[in-house]
Amino acid sequence: MSRHESFSVERTRELVSDFAGLEGPLLPILHALQEAFGFVPEAAVPVIAQELNLTRAEVHGVVTFYHDFRHAPAGRHVVKLCRAEACQSMGCDDLIAHAERRLGVAMGETSADGAVTLEPIYCLGLCATAPSAMVDGRLVGRLDAAAIDAIATEVER
Ligand code: FES
């Protein structure tokens, strides 16, 4: 069973009003929505825009600019592979291709059986042990093909 709530306009309004008094409330609101619903539903955009007196385009622009915000519910496991500079220089692109093949899912997507979401991330602060990943919130350094295979076995269980 999902640990997230189902989307509702009322709950969105409630979360918006929790942060509306802050200076620069949009990012905290989007994080709160993702925490509550597991993603930022498209249907939340007009509600936020109305409550904050912004255009839908402004809200949509922020939601799509930040890679942290999901546009659809995530799978049961979330594998994030770092694509920032240090990891690039240590060959993360080849590992990403390997992970896509091994997990049967393209970067940015969720497998058809809902088991795993594969997402890019931009620096985990683990550059010294690049290439790096985060698996369900756990940091993993010194990634290689064997480590990707082990992660795949773990998330497919
Ligand atoms: S660049 Fe990948 S962990 Fe810093």
From TrEMBL:
SUPFAM superfamilies, per the entry: Thioredoxin-like (SSF52833)
Cofactor(s) this protein cannot do without: [2Fe-2S] cluster
Keyword line: 2Fe-2S, Iron, Iron-sulfur, Metal-binding
PROSITE patterns documented for this protein: COMPLEX1_24K
Entry keyword Iron: yes
The UniProt record lists the keyword Iron-sulfur: yes
NCBIfam families associated with the record: PRK05988.1
Protein name: Formate dehydrogenase gamma subunit
Any one GO MF annotation of this record: oxidoreductase activity
Record-linked InterPro entries: NADP_DH_HndA-like, NuoE-like, NuoE_N, Thioredoxin-like_sf
Annotated cofactor note: Binds 1 [2Fe-2S] cluster.
